[in-house]
Amino acid sequence: MAASTAAGKQRIPKVAKVKNKAPAEVQITAEQLLREAKERELELLPPPPQQKITDEEELNDYKLRKRKTFEDNIRKNRTVISNWIKYAQWEESLKEIQRARSIYERALDVDYRNITLWLKYAEMEMKNRQVNHARNIWDRAITTLPRVNQFWYKYTYMEEMLGNIAGARQVFERWMEWQPEEQAWHSYINFELRYKEVDRARTIYERYILWMRSEWCCFYPGCCSSHGIVLIGQVVVTIGLEIKDAGFICLPHRLAWHFFNSPVLVLVHPDVKNWIKYARFEEKHGYFAHARKVYERAVEFFGDEHMDERLYVAFAKFEENQKEFERVRVIYKYALDRISKQEAQELFKNYTVFEKKFGDRRGIEDIIVSKRRFQYEEEVKANPHNYDAWFDYLRLVESDAEAETVREVYERAIANVPPIQEKRHWKRYIYLWVNYALYEELEAKDPERTRQVYQASLELIPHKKFTFAKMWLLYAQFEIRQKNLPFARRALGTSIGKCPKNKLFKGYIELELQLREFDRCRKLYEKFLEFGPENCTSWIKFAELETILGDIERARAIYELAISQPRLDMPEVLWKSYIDFEIEQEETERTRNLYRRLLQRTQHVKVWISFAQFELSSGKEGSLAKCRQIYEEANKTMRNCEEKEERLMLLESWRSFEDEFGTASDKERVDKLMPEKVKKRRKVQADDGSDAGWEEYYDYIFPEDAANQPNLKLLAMAKLWKKQQEKEAAEQDPDKDIDESES
Question: Could you read off the pLDDT of 497-515 as tens digits, one per residue?
Fold first, then answer.
């Protein structure tokens, strides 16, 4: 009673109550925990110590430990083949071939279906020149796994490399008994051809083709009307391919019993490409009668219900190569009469090409051209302004029709003038006129009509709104080809007067340059510059012309006039050309003055660097001092420059100069001027003006700028004070921890 009372008085332990039973926001899976534990376990493992083996006893101990490790790994999981392979390769590296063989044999007992295991085993024997052992392994491999083509390929390759041609042939024969895929047959054929055994290759082709044809018979003896049944993989397929005078394709008699007793039976059906390869093989080796016979047998084999255009195209091309054009025509017609048009597109295309090459133009070509012409007529009727359709139509007509018909189509095409006078609508249309003129000149050989086409096109173009310089230049070039130089100059002069363009001026000047009419070139350049004084390229070309002619003062005057223009499209190119011109003339003082004048207009860093490089390359006394002086002047000038990258570029160029030519004090002086690269933050605003956060960027603080800004000094002192405070706090923390532990 007392014991029960005492037990009742025992307190029940309290269970912690979970206040928030909702799932955590971030869930951790068991897989993640295991993966992290494995990763941390690998991190904690120390690297294995390096061992140096000095005598045989240590070597034996090392071998014993390694073998024990490998055996333990294999004992843990025998099915992991990589452990076996590593073990065998290690033994092989020690030249323990017998042990490696034993390991491979043990592994094969575990998994004899592993392809990699057989390959590694055989490769080991071959590397160690154990040919007979390698043969035994390959024999076992192809006997155990006869459907693995890689074994057969490597076995035959090894025998061929050893010069055992008969052995390689014997292996191929054993392989062919298994009726492998097509590539295996072709490998056997190529093997025989490498040794000039054409008759053997023909025999293999015959076996390859005829096996697929003649060994097929009805599944039930005496029944040739039933369908054959083939098990592909594990799918039963009913075949309905009929063969002339042989009933339906069914299983061979010798495979009938095997069909019911084997879970897998794979049979290859004949294909057109195999017949074609056989015929091309005969053709390649000069047996044209045999090749023709192969094609005829193929046509007979497939019959009329299973015709393939590839077979007939190859047959026709073969006969075409033999100059048997009537045979080719008969083959094409026979195939086209029996194959549907949708399936005979390639056949029809090849037939058309053949007739164009060897047939009557009024035969097949008239039909094809009329058909395509009808299609193009429908397109241009539906949309007369579809100029791409007109181009295709004209290309077709030019290739076949007479000149009058071509001219008629061209006249119809150019009559469809774009309704809107905007250049983008005329860009395709104007090529109709270009092609028309080229046709009249090159094909029809009618210069007068060509001239009329050019003149009509130039009258049609609205030059007040836009023009096409191409048409003016093509017309001028045509007149030059006709040796009518005044007409060409008149056309180009008219174009410049009506609608001046840069391209027209350039073309006219190029023409006069080729004719060596330099006075005319000068006048044209003057007109050109009056038309576009901001075009720097024109000024440069004009000055270069004068330089070539030897008139230096005139060229210099042109440059002076050019740089004095208030508006230029590429002033930096013009100034550079002027400076290079003076450098070529070895006018050092003039070049220096040009740099000074340019620096009055722009303070770009590249100008300063180029000026300094010029002084350095002048080669005169004091050039180094002048170069250094320019760098100093540039640095002083660019102190107020907002682009700090340009100032840094200048200092880097200066430093490279001092590294090559300066003294130690000069280098130290430039190094003191180099800026400090700091990272800063700034606000970013979106396109709509709202805040888009902060972004980091790099800024450069130059020593000269830092000395002039007291805020930067104050900031540096604040950073130093903070470091001192942290250091003092670190020194006081240990004492504080001791006091807390004592209390």
Answer: 787 877 877 888 788 887 7
